[in-house]
């Protein structure tokens, strides 16, 4: 579903990614773990078109997308729930969710009516968002904003969903709630690439995992294999 080959990218001429190779199969949850500064978020930004790769290929359902704009990649079926959530604070919860469907549905007549079924599905997954649907997104708690960011990405009905650091800045009890949601997404068959600072939690939900160091994949394997890997144990699971 998503295949990355020899991906290079960076900022202002400074290289961050140095030949990243990874694959996310249909219906799988793949984790990307590593230390701060390893290049995980840059990878996500390069995949979703927020930055343009300098070399390499990104294949979405077999179609090369590395040269496309972020909006074009979104229309082709890749949704990105970014690090830091990035909700639109002055807008209501419901308007934030509707923005997730903007590239998929007609923009004028009947937009809200056609989005109603998707909204109902999101509200069933996140009852708290339904309770706060007319509340300004900027007034939500951190956990609620994370739910909103995930819900907004789901509104696009993506082929592949990127989740970048969904637990960042959240209290431990809320982190558990977020991972319960991620498990539900996995059970629903949504194809996911998860970047997560809590390696142990990420490996508990993942089907496969990659460990990134210095802008490249250093180790990969099934979660059970990585839990036994001395290098991974010492650096991320100790």
Q: Can you tag this structure with a few keywords?
A:
single chain, 238 residues, alpha/beta, 4-stranded antiparallel beta sheet, 26% strand, globular
Task: Provide a descriptive summary of the structure in words.
The chain has helices spanning 40-47, 70-76, 93-100, 111-125, 127-131, 142-154, 172-187, 199-205, 223-228, 230-237; strands at residues 2-11, 14-24, 29-34, 55-60, 63-64, 78-81, 160-164, 191-195, 208-213, 216-221. The relative contact order is 0.19. Helix content is 39%, strand content 26%. It is of the alpha/beta class. The radius of gyration is 17 Å and the shape is globular. The protein starts with a strand and ends with a helix. Helix 7 (172-187) links the parallel strand 7 and strand 8 (191-195). The protein has a six-stranded mixed sheet, sandwiched between helices.
């Amino acid at each position: 579903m998503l295949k990355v080959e020899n991906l290079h990218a960076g900022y202002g001429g400074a290289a961050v990614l140095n030949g990243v190779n990874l694959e996310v199969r249909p219906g799988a949850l793949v984790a990307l773990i590593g230390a701060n500064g390893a290049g995980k978020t840059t990878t996500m930004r390069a995949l979703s078109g927020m930055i343009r790769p300098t070399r390499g290929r990104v294949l979405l359902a077999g179609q090369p997308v590395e040269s496309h704009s972020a909006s074009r990649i979104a229309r082709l079926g890749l949704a990105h729930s970014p690090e830091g959530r990035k909700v639109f604070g002055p807008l209501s919860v419901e308007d934030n969710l509707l923005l997730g469907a903007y590239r998929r549905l007609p923009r004028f007549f009947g937009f809200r009516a056609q989005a109603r079924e998707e909204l109902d599905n999101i509200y069933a997954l996140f009852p708290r968002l339904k309770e706060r649907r007319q509340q300004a997104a900027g007034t939500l708690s951190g956990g609620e904003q994370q739910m909103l960011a995930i819900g907004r990405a789901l509104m696009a009905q993506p082929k592949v969903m990127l989740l970048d650091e969904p637990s960042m800045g959240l209290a431990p009890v809320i982190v558990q709630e977020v991972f319960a949601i991620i498990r539900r997404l996995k059970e629903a068959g949504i194809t996911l690439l998860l970047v997560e600072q809590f390696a142990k939690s990420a490996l508990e939900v993942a089907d496969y995992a990659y460990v990134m160091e210095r802008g490249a994949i250093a180790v990969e394997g099934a979660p059970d294999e990585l839990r036994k890997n001395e290098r991974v144990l010492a650096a991320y699971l100790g």
